[in-house]
Specification:
The chain is α+β, with helices and mostly antiparallel strands. Helices cover 27% and strands 21% of the residues. The protein has four helices and eight strands, in the order αβββαββαβββα. Strands 1, 2, 3, 4, 5 and 8 form a six-stranded mixed β-sheet that branches. Strands 6-7 form a two-stranded antiparallel sheet.
Length: 238
């Protein structure tokens, strides 16, 4: 009886330990962070020549009236918000873009950088055109949307005046939510919205910032073996 009591107690501890580890493992799985979601859309940018830097526009192209000599950009990509939006690629130099367009009275010249993005940003089945620049010469009261329309038709907008396509790209969709782990795969959305996603590496989605289930399971195995060894040793002494 005396020898069996410690063994029974150790066995009880073993069962409790396994139960606790199992619970922790389930919690680790349940609290794993969800994959971030982004949106696929044309972002609108303004270039600051003094700093030679792009700035995310605070208003849409149809509400913006650029001045003669301004440089503006459009970039198609997947991003979560304006803070991580991808900037237009390529040089943004007004003199270079508009060197062949002479100034005219009553009109203004706007240098535009149009970047359709990369294959990773493209909707499934579509190939992005090459980035390009264009010099738009428009009336003095024209908006950025007017300037873009003069050099990059056809444009497509949705019912809320969001810019959906430049020069017909992409063929469909408009600001749809996508899973950042796979730019071409739609994320679940509310009914009525277009669905159809940018991750530089699939391995990034596997890291959750906490201990992995495999690590927890390994610790559990070591703990179980340790307790089993204690039980066996006490049985031999008994």
């Amino acid at each position: 009886m005396t020898a069996r009591r410690p063994a029974g107690l150790a066995l009880g501890l073993l069962v409790a330990l396994v139960s606790t580890v199992s619970t922790v493992s389930l919690l680790a799985v349940s609290v794993a962070p969800a994959q971030a979601a982004g949106y696929r859309y044309w972002s609108f940018w303004e270039h600051d020549g003094s700093r030679n830097a792009w700035t995310y526009a605070t208003s849409g192209p149809s509400q913006t009236k650029p001045s003669d000599g301004d440089v503006q950009g459009f970039r198609f990509a997947v991003s979560e918000d304006s803070k991580d939006a991808k900037q237009p690629r390529g040089a943004a130099d007004f003199d270079a873009v508009c060197s062949d367009t002479s100034a005219k009275s009553g009109q203004k010249r706007i240098a535009l950088v149009i970047d359709p993005g990369t294959a990773a940003d493209a909707p499934s089945g579509e190939t992005p055109p090459k980035p390009r620049t264009a010099c738009a010469q428009v009336d003095e009261d024209a908006t950025s949307a007017d300037a873009l329309a003069s050099v990059a038709k056809p444009l497509r907008y949705d019912s809320s005046a969001m810019l959906c396509a430049i020069s017909g790209y992409p063929k469909s969709g408009c600001g749809e939510q996508v899973s950042s782990s796979n730019p071409s795969k739609p994320a679940s959305q509310d009914s009525g919205s277009d669905s159809a996603s940018d991750s530089d590496s699939d391995s990034d989605s596997d890291s959750g910032g906490g201990p992995s289930v495999g690590l927890i399971a390994g610790v559990a195995v070591v703990a179980v073996l340790g307790v089993a060894a204690v039980v066996q040793a006490r049985r031999r002494r008994g």
